[in-house]
């Protein structure tokens, strides 16, 4: 009997794949690195000297990710600590994500939290008095950013690089947009996700990325910016780190991320099981990137099954309320095709993908989320993977080709 252990809460799932035509996609073997040694190497090879970059008389503002990204911020801050002068301020660059809880902020900062707890603020994208205009985009809309960022002479950003379904990759420029941009600026940027080119792993010709880069260039042309960009392994530990100026470190990290997160797939599958990892798997909306990975391995008429515990619910009330207006994928798609750009709201691109997969493929969910809620997101809900797979095989046939992506919130299948 061949059993496969897959991430789930409160206990991992054991899936029996004996006799099935299944291909398992996992992280390729990468060596375990010492975070301290890797960060030391990154600082040594940086195009900027961090010790010379920091001005003790003008403490920097440090931008960090929220818990929606698996960034090992605390580990990086421990290494950065000797360079940070008294008075250094920290901003959690949440974009339009919910304000993190006290517990989440403690997890973000790790062992450094007691040292910095009185100097941490959370970005508010809807606070006009705390925002300032820095320019106008080539597309004609204004760029607004957190006022504290532009009042600082020196800025440090800490980021991790992962594939992103419409920005190409996370990291780099995303500390500024969407991280500390205004709600309206973020909305205008995310409209581009409905345009051709806004794809996972793609930067050149990607309108979302290019607009983010334009925003970032406004900041870096006016401010001194030092960054630490990391690529993590399947456990969320640092595999590679790059430091220095933003474009320098980001470009190097992107090259490594492509190598680490792209996994070979023999051929597309009739059934794809895409497993979300923590912390994304705690909420349905944060696990959606598993679907983006899974869809790349799926035949045109295939069934897409997402596995995530969803113990903390949907995770995006605005998206849930919006999608609840529509009785079916067809109803949403009719509206979308008629006036998608003119009536754009944040998250519309995600709803479009859910509705498309649900109508033309089959969109199933294995989770602990109440079925009456998950079905509103166009999912066919299950609380047991064995049952879901059995039903899928009844539809597709016992010899159906199955692709199981065990780290679907990170790895991207690729057919050579």
Strand order, sheet with most strands: 3-19-15-16-17-18
Biggest sheet character: 6 strands, parallel
Helix/strand class: alpha/beta
The percentage helix is: 25-40%
- The CATH top-level class label of the largest domain: Alpha Beta
Question: Which features characterize this protein?
Answer:
single chain, 416 residues, alpha/beta, 2-enoyl-CoA Hydratase, Chain A, domain 1, Rossmann fold, 2 domains, globular
What's the layout of helices and strands?
Layout: E1 3-6, E2 13-16, E3 22-25, H1 35-45, H2 50-53, E4 61-64, H3 73-80, E5 89-92, H4 102-109, H5 113-116, E6 120-122, E7 131-136, E8 142-146, H6 147-151, E9 154-160, E10 163-164, E11 168-169, H7 183-191, H8 207-222, E12 224-232, E13 238-244, H9 246-261, E14 262-264, E15 269-275, H10 289-295, E16 298-307, H11 317-323, H12 329-339, H13 348-360, E17 363-366, H14 371-374, E18 380-382, H15 385-396, E19 402-405, E20 412-414
Parallel strand pairs: 3-19, 4-5, 4-9, 5-6, 9-12, 14-20, 15-16, 15-19, 16-17, 17-18
Antiparallel strand pairs: 1-2, 7-8, 10-11, 12-13
């Amino acid at each position: 009997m061949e059993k496969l252990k897959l991430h789930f809460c409160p206990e991992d799932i054991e899936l029996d794949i004996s006799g099935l035509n299944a291909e398992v996609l996992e992280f390729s073997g990468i060596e375990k690195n010492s975070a301290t040694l890797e960060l030391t190497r990154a600082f040594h090879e940086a195009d900027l000297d961090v010790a010379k970059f920091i001005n003790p008389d003008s403490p920097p503002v440090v931008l960090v990710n929220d818990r929606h990204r698996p960034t090992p911020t605390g580990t990086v801050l421990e290494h950065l600590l000797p360079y940070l002068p008294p008075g250094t301020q920290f901003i959690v660059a949440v974009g339009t994500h919910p304000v993190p809880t006290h517990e989440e902020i403690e997890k973000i900062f790790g062992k450094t939290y007691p040292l910095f707890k009185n100097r941490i603020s959370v970005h508010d994208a809807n606070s006009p008095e705390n925002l300032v205009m820095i320019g106008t985009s080539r597309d004609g809309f204004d760029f607004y950013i957190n006022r504290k960022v532009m009042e600082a002479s020196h800025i440090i950003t800490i980021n991790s690089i992962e594939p992103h379904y419409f920005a190409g990759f996370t990291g780099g420029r995303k500390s500024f947009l969407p991280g500390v941009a205004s709600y309206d600026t973020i909305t205008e940027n995310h409209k581009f996700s409905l345009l051709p080119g806004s794809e996972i792993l793609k930067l050149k010709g990607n309108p979302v990325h290019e607009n983010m880069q334009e925003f970032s260039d406004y900041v870096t042309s006016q401010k001194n910016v030092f960054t630490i960009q990391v690529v993590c392994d399947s456990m969320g530990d640092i595999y590679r780190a790059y430091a220095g100026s933003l474009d320098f470190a980001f470009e190097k990290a992107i090259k490594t991320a492509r190598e680490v997160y792209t996994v070979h797939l023999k051929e597309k599958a009739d059934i794809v099981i895409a497993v979300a990892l923590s912390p994304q798997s705690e909420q349905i909306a944060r696990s959606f990137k598993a679907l983006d990975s899974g869809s790349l391995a799926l035949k045109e008429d295939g069934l897409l099954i997402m596995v995530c515990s969803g113990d903390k619910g949907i995770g995006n009330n605005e998206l849930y309320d919006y999608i609840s207006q529509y009785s079916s994928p067809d109803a949403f798609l009719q509206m979308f095709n008629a006036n998608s750009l003119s009536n754009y709201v944040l998250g519309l691109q995600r709803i479009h993908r859910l509705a498309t997969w649900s109508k033309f493929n089959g969109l199933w969910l294995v989770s602990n989320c109440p079925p009456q809620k998950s079905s509103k997101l166009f999912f066919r809900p299950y609380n047991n993977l064995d049952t879901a797979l059995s039903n899928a095989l009844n539809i597709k046939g016992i010899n159906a080709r199955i692709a199981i992506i065990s780290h679907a919130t990170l790895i991207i299948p690729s057919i050579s």
